[in-house]
Amino acid sequence: MDKANVKQMIRNEIVSSLLKTQKFLIVGNWKMNQTKHEVMSFLDAIVDYDFGNKNKLVIVPSNPYLYLFEDKLRYSKILYGVQNVFPKNEGAFTGELSIQMTKDFGCKYAILGHSERRTLFNECDEFVSKKVRMCVQNQIIPILCIGENLEDRKNGNYKKFLTNQIKEGLSRISGEELKEVVIAYEPIWEIGTGETELPDQVEEINMFLRKFIIKEYGNDKGKNITLTYGGSVKPSNVGELALAQDVSGFLIGGASLESKTFKDISDILNGN
Ligand code: PEP
User: Fold this and answer.
1) pLDDT tens for each residue of 47-64
2) Count of domains in the chain?
């Protein structure tokens, strides 16, 4: 075996032993994908799979299929959630989903302020912050998505942009409630494009974001908040990205649609 292979083997060993101990949140965002048949096959393929006890797994399907999740995952450790909620309890809001409806189906998480909702449906920080409040008040964990576009990234404004999104998104919750929130950093130009930042770049931004949260909310709260990364994460890059400091999980779109890749990602993050 040549030196390069030996080096790679040693590196793989180190990576897997690090991943064996670190805990991750793994969230699959299915967006507007999957048919009823595909959802059933996916659930059949994962329901008895050994995902281990270390990481937390969450799948976020389209709303019509939540009843299948409630039924199939009743005795499973896999959690599920919704891709959006409306910040009012009930009323004349055609096409919207209330927090009670998410609870009726056993949801535990809600993705809020995803860049697709911000750009395609004009959701602003103020509106997103009301949804964050609604979730925290009702024991649904909000996954507050933040992320800059390519223009902001290139012109150097992105750090200010991201910290504003955090400040505004969290403006209706107290420091105490911060532990009930997940922040998902997703650079917009990497979502669904196959492009992913280098682990060093991910590390730099996540460290910056955590430092900012510590400064704003105090050491304990900032240190413990779950800060995930998303943007074309897949089995081939998740191991390296998981080594980046201050990344406590992943929000995964495309690669979460197939049960095989979802399981592969879980295996890698278990250090297997
Ligand atoms: C996402 O939906 O939030 C996402 C990160 O998608 P993808 O993994 O496909 O880039």
Assistant:
1) 999 999 999 999 999 999
2) 1
